[in-house]
Amino acid sequence: MARTETGKADSKVKRQARTLQACLAKLLEPPMELLDGHPLPDVELSPREIRVLFLLGERGEMIMTDLAAALPAPLSTVTRIIDRMETKELVQRARSTEDRRIVVVQQAPKGRLMHDRFLSSQLQVAERMLEPLSNGEREILLELLGKLSRQI
User: Fold this and answer.
1) Where are the beta strands (DSSP E) in 2-90?
2) Residue 92: phi, psi to the nearest 5?
3) In this predicted model, which residue has the larger pLDDT, 79 or 38?
4) What is the pLDDT of residues 28-76, one digit of tens each?
5) Which pTM does this prediction carry?
6) Which three-class secondary structure state does DSSP give residue 64?
7) Do the strands 91-95 and 62-63 form a parallel or antiparallel pair, or are they unpaired?
8) What is the percentage of the chain residues whose pLDDT exceeds 90?
9) Taking a C-beta distance cutoff of 8 angstroms, is the pair 121, 127 a contact?
10) What Gene3D superfamilies does UniProt report for this protein, alphabetically (predicted)?
11) Which residues contact 50 (CB under 8 A, 6 or more apart)?
12) In whole angstroms, how far apart are CA 139 and each of 47, 126, 144, 145?
C-alpha cells in the first residue's frame, strides 16, 4: 500500500476508534436508575470491588491467587480489596480444609444481595438497549461484541 493510502487508513481507524470510544463511554455510563436503585446505598464500592462481586457471583468461591489472576492484580492488592470488602460484610474468607496455606473467598449474604440486584439492573438496561434493534441486528451486534471481547 502506498504511503498516503496507509496514512489515510491509519487516520480512518483512529477516527473510528474515537467514535467507538465515545459510544462505549455512553453505553457504559450507568443510567440514573441504577444509581438510584443501589441495593445498599450506605455501602460505597470501588470498580474493583464491584468486579470481585461479579467474579464471585459467576464462579462461587475462589482462592485468592485465582482472584488475583482474574482481576488482574497483585496478590497484595487483592488482599487489601478483600480486607475492605470483609469489613463491609460483602465477602467471607476462610482457610482451605485441605491446605491451610490456601485462602478461599466467597460472597457473604450482603454481597450476594448486592450482586443479584446489580445484575438484575444491568440485564434490564441491556434489554432496553437491544429493543430498538431487529433480531438480525442483535445477532450481528452480539457476534461483533463477542469478537471484540475476545481480543481484550
Assistant:
1) 62-63
2) -130, 145
3) 79
4) 665 555 555 555 556 788 889 989 999 999 999 999 999 999 999 999 9
5) 0.69
6) helix
7) unpaired
8) 44
9) no
10) Winged helix-like DNA-binding domain superfamily/Winged helix DNA-binding domain
11) 118
12) 29, 14, 9, 10
The helix/strand/coil state of 94 is strand
pLDDT of 137 higher than 80: yes
The three cell numbers of residue 148 are 471484540
> CA-to-CA distance for 124 and 131, rounded, in angstroms?
11
Q: In the structure, how many helices (H) and strands (E) does the chain have?
A: 7, 3
Question: What are the chain's domains?
Answer: 45-151 (1.10.10.10)
Distance CA 93, CA 108 (A): 9
DSSP state of 28: H
Model confidence at 16: pLDDT above 90: no
